[in-house]
Amino acid sequence: MEPTVFQTLEKRYKPRMNADEFQERLDRVQQRIREACARANRDESNVQLIAVSKTHGPEVIRVAADCGVTVLGESKVQEARAKIPMSPGHLSWHLIGHLQTNKIRHAVQLFDTIHSVDSQRLMEALDQGCAQVGVTMPIYLEVNVSGERSKYGVEPDDLPTVLEAAAGCTHLDILGLMTIPPFAPEADKARPFFASLRELRERCRGEWGFPFDGLSMGMSHDFEVAIEEGATCVRVGSALFGDRRAKMG
Ligand SMILES: *Cc1c(COP(=O)(O)O)cnc(C)c1O
To answer: Among 41, 80, 108, 153, which is least packed by CB within 10 angstroms?
Structure first.
């Protein structure tokens, strides 16, 4: 545990969160999920909500847990190492940010699922790390569907090769694909990227023989569009916890 990371966070971000305020935001997000499922003719039990708690301290996480949140998303291993031991024990933690190979061992011990397996090299190193610890890790392969050079993720063209290698990763359980589209204030601009990820999943199932269903896509401002395009898992931070930048000071 590294209390210094946590202390820095607590200083930088207001630690308090009113339970009524959180419950209201949670109800609203769940309502939006229901409405998007209804529009897409989908069963809402097929959409998992991941509450992205990055930058928020254990006090806020406890409020979320008291309101019924059970799955939390974190993007940094160091931050998670500081927070998870101070948080309620029944929660499930998902890693959604880039994982450096030198942090694999910690990640394997802290997280229940990893959404950000963004290269073949990381996938193979993670498989080894899981074998050493003696666990099987559920993962999503992150795909760079937009082709932005700044983005992490497997290139769509490389997916067949990566999947071939994945077949040999006996300590990984591939749940599906994940993506982060380029940021655009208008949610609908993300739709083609979400649709691309869904089409890639169809090819994984059909041409490449990987029968997974998972699509981890959609954030606070575009998760409804993601659900309409087939998301099975939405990663929602600021719509639940408030704007991270506004909390600085
Ligand atoms: C921060 C983050 C989210 C949540 O973002 P919001 O816009 O706050 O909902 C989702 N996915 C990833 C990969 C993130 O880093």
So the answer is: 41
**Residue 34 falls inside a structural domain:** yes
Residue 249 counted as domain residue: no
Question: Which residues surround ligand 1 with Cβ inside 6 Å?
Answer: 52, 54, 75, 96-97, 180, 219-220, 235-239
Separation of CA 53 and ligand 1 centre (Å): 9
Alpha-helical (H) ranges within the chain are: 3-12, 19-39, 58-66, 77-83, 104-110, 120-133, 159-166, 191-206, 223-228, 238-241
pTM above 0.85, yes or no: yes
Residues 190-228 pLDDT 10s: 999 999 999 999 999 999 999 999 999 999 999 999 999
Q: Are 52 and 239 in contact (CB under 8 A)?
A: no
Domain-embedded: residue 180: yes
Quick one: which atom of ligand 1 is closest to the CA of 178? 13
Domain, as residue range, for 203: 3-241
52: in domain: yes
Which atom of ligand 1 has the smallest separation from the CA of 223? 9
Q: Check which CATH number belongs to the domain holding 199 and give it.
A: 3.20.20.10
